[in-house]
Queue: 2 jobs
Job 1
Amino acid sequence: MTIDLKEREKTMKNHYKIEVADGKYIIMQKDFYFSEMSNENQEYYTEYKTYKTLKGAIIAVKKAIIQHFPKDYFKNDELDKFVKVMI
């Protein structure tokens, strides 16, 4: 089974996002539920973790993302650019 890593990148870019509320940085994680009314999955975001600083939130998102890719998949500053989309 071949894993399409570019497709996984697209999925991960939409899986997490960082929001600011009350001076804190909240990592939001996409989740799904099945709607009987529409008979399909609906997406929504739930609170994953809260951090006092943006740097802390970014580090946590990076750690979460790299778990879904092979070691050394992101070169140099590619991971930083990847995470900037989520802010």
Note: Helices lie at 5-13, 54-66, 78-84.
Job 2
Amino acid sequence: MLRLVEERHIPVLMNGMARGVVPADHRLAFSRARSKALGEADVALIVGVPMDFRLGFGGVFGSTTQLIVADRVEPAREHPRPVAAGLYGDLTATLSALAGSGGTDHQGWIEELATAETMARDLEKAELVDDRIPLHPMRVYAELAALLERDALVVIDAGDFGSYAGRMIDSYLPGCWLDSGPFGCLGSGPGYALAAKLARPQRQVVLLQGDGAFGFSGMEWDTLVRHNVAVVSVIGNNGIWGLEKHPMEALYGYSVVAELRPGTRYDEVVRALGGHGELVSVPAELRPALERAFASGLPAVVNVLTDPSVAYPRRSNLA
């Protein structure tokens, strides 16, 4: 993939566990310019991603964009919109063949996307230093990102809090991002983090959890402690099911079964099990708490109280 992108000068957007296939700081890697890139491209190569809700069932692409789909196998059902070509089989062979077929000058297009990317990042700057209490998720991730090593393994087990992680936490190597995929199952995080740390014991393994996700598998911290697996978790504790509450209220004007207990001390649960736990309630506490968690050498939780009024800005496609 990296050779294809570089040889053909193609801007690339990475989704889910494909993050890091091209380093996030590569000049051809984009994230904030996604809408412009997909909506205005003449041709889009879709590699290993079904045209499901993540791609608006094909609706994120421009009406005249020609789609080329590359995947290991043909889809079980027809694509939701016509494709110009389908390339099915070994992806390494497919991408290698495409990389060797010559390049085109896309510099003007790349510069347009770079401008859009910079403008979008500029709009986020105020959130990165937001001093509100409870904390803004963007402030949480701005502080965390500064402490992550380039090869850190990041595990996502959250709704809105995980979406903010997707925006703020970058991957630079393949296999550094683990999430639950399109089904969005909560509670998988501690198991993923356990396996990641056992497989790569010398690397940072960071588990990013919502408070709802902790309720599914919080007792796995007993497993982490018993086996001395020093995973560091950051919990975004906003006292709600944010991914359910905010969309329900936006769509229907009310929400049901979307409340959790505000301020629950998940950090004390982990401490009782033998791990390291800290509560963060104001921004100034966050960086020191994160540093102590990484230095503890124990399975650790930093339980951060986050603002329940903050809803991740997303576009819904419920059809």
Note: The mean pLDDT is 95.
